[in-house]
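We close this part of the discussion by returning to an individual protein. In the encoding step, the backbone of a single protein was reduced to a row of integers, each denoting a local shape. The sequence in question and its structure tokens are set out directly beneath this paragraph.
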Amino acid sequence: MSMKFTDLQCKEVICVSNGQRLGFVSDVLVEIPEGNVCAIVVPCPCRFPGGLGRRDDFLIPWNCIKRIGPDIVLVDVKPEDCRTPRGGRMQRF
């Protein structure tokens, strides 16, 4: 199966364990030079309208993705375990 990044960006991410909507895919984390996708990045919901108050992102490991459908991405992860401060994405899976 192949997919363009732009196709992945349009998809909403939902946690299968509790049905929580985490948001929409905004970016992917890729290993260089191998080119392996190791995680997807989903911005946490904003505290205030217009994007103010956003400090964290959900960094969801690729192996936690259970299904990629036409409109959604189903993940099996605890949202509090994958929350990462914005700008602190350089962790290794």
